[in-house]
Amino acid sequence: IPLEILMLAKTAGAIIMGMANALVPVIMAAFITDLSGMSWAAFIPAVLLIAVVSTFLGLFIAVAVSEVFEAQTFSNFFRFPMMFLCGLFFPIANLPLILKPLSYALPLTYGADILHGAVNGGHVLPLSLDFAVLGEFCAGLFALSLRNIRKSWII
After folding, report:
1. Distance, C-alpha 119 to centroid of its chain
2. Which among 32, 48, 78, 155 is placed 20 to 30 Å from 26, CA to CA?
3. Distance from CA of residue 107 to its chain's centroid?
4. How many C-beta atoms surround the C-beta of residue 108 within 10 A?
């Protein structure tokens, strides 16, 4: 089996779980509020790409370390700043000037922008740019993970 297929198969479960976890609050919200104004054509692909990029970021971190506990600790180094700098909780425009470039270097920024646009039409960047950047992050993280595996593992 080619290594690429093996890596995709291994990460497919995490991607599916990520999508399922993201859709649970949406299903709960459907019982509380009217979701007819949402752009499902943007929302569902955004959730998929966010799940893929998050999984591939986790894969990249996991293949870069030698112990599981190191991966868990190291992933928090990326996860928590990304959650607070991506514009999910407060607008990027309100960030200090020095943090704005860092915010746009994070993949979740583009996913959060798509979600804002899908839910309330309040996206900052063009949706096509958001999707393209998320796709590039997915491809780049997968390629970097593949390179790290080939470099450090015995194959």
Report:
1. 18
2. 78
3. 6
4. 23
29-47 mean pLDDT: 94
Residue type at position 14: A
- For residue 137, pLDDT beyond 90: yes
Q: What is the 3-state secondary structure (H, E, C) of the chain?
A: CCHHHHHHHHHHHHHHHHHHHHHHHHHHHHCCCCCCCCCHHHHHHHHHHHHHHHHHHHHHHHHHCCCHHHHHHHHHHHHHHHHHHCCCCCCHHHCCCCCHHHHHCCHHHHHHHHHHHHHHCCCCCCHHHHHHHHHHHHHHHHHHHHHHHHHHCCC
- Across the range 18-30, mean pLDDT stands at 94
Sequence-distant (6+) residues with CB within 8 A of 53 are 107, 108, 111, 134, 137, 138, 141
- Token digits of residue 48: 């998929």
